[in-house]
Amino acid sequence: MGMVGTVGLVLHPQRDSKKAIDTILRWAAGKGATVLGLPEEVGRIDCSAVAVDPTALVERADLLVGLGGDGTMLRTMRLLAGRPTPILGVNLGRLGFLAEIDVDELADTLSAIDGHRYTVESRMAVRSRVGTTEVTAFNDIALVRIPGEGLAAVSVTPAGSDFVRYAADAVIVATSTGSTAYSFSAGGPIVSPRVEAILVVPAAAHSAFNRALVLPADEDVTLEVLPSSGRLAVEVDGAVVGHLCPGDRITVTAWPAAAKVVRVGTTFYERARRKLRVDGSTEAYP
């Protein structure tokens, strides 16, 4: 018996996903499977996917398909966080780290998943509370300076031990998944998603110590906004969810294996080399 009886869709808000949706609908019709989507997403496309609310989507789907890029995949992962349902990412534009296939490969990939011919990569998330709101990120939670309001002056306390104070444009708490995102642009290390670790990375640090920290997943880390800091924006996977003022603090904890991402071919290192254009030193080549 096939694994996939119900496919759930999560769509990019702007990119054209009709070809991909038509492919999924044809595949599902041939298998007698159901296709579900969120009302505000499938409602803007002429298709026969059944519109359901987010709770029904995550409860009923045997496979969730994110159509778009890494941003769509992050949203899909947050939607499904904590559930064992696998997530397949389909590129509808630029090459990403999380999206696994292109549209032309979609039908064959669905059949491979239905026949249990795939592997799963577990992805860790990080969680925190910003004010009264619980937030979850699969890339990063960042405290970011607001232009005109001063630097981000932040103390970093891992596992209850006061360790370092940064004055920077931002202080980023990233997962291994997020090591190739904002953290990478700030000079942080590339970390395999198989490593469950928390990275703390300053962006444009105004101090002699500008190194990143790599913490084990079983240690939480507290960030406190220092008196010399300006007001800071709190970004969760790139979206502003609140603001912190001097004296405010947040504690970030790891959520291991919070999402399951389908893999059918490429490795993390192949994707990283292509996306980041990793070539190494020209002096290393003959």
From TrEMBL:
Cellular location(s): Cytoplasm
GO cellular component, one term: cytoplasm
Record-listed E.C. numbers: 2.7.1.23
Key word Ligase present: no
Top-level taxonomy: Bacteria, Bacillati, Actinomycetota, Actinomycetes, Streptosporangiales
Needed cofactors: a divalent metal cation
Purpose: Involved in the regulation of the intracellular balance of NAD and NADP, and is a key enzyme in the biosynthesis of NADP. Catalyzes specifically the phosphorylation on 2'-hydroxyl of the adenosine moiety of NAD to yield NADP.
Family: Belongs to the NAD kinase family.
Chief place where the protein resides: cytoplasm
Keywords: ATP-binding, Cytoplasm, Kinase, NAD, NADP, Nucleotide-binding, Transferase
Catalysed transformations (reactions): NAD(+) + ATP = ADP + NADP(+) + H(+)
Major enzyme class: transferase
Protein name in UniProt: NAD kinase
InterPro entries: ATP-NAD_kinase_N (IPR017438), ATP-NAD_kinase_PpnK-typ_C (IPR017437), NAD/diacylglycerol_kinase_sf (IPR016064), NADK (IPR002504)
Residues noted as binding NAD(+) in the record, renumbered to the chain: D70, G71, R75, N139, D140, D169, T180, A181, Y182, S183, F184, S185, A204
Active-site positions on this chain: D70
Xref: SUPFAM superfamilies: NAD kinase/diacylglycerol kinase-like
Gene Ontology terms, MF aspect: ATP binding; metal ion binding; NAD binding; NAD+ kinase activity
HAMAP family: NAD_kinase
UniProt key word Plastid: no
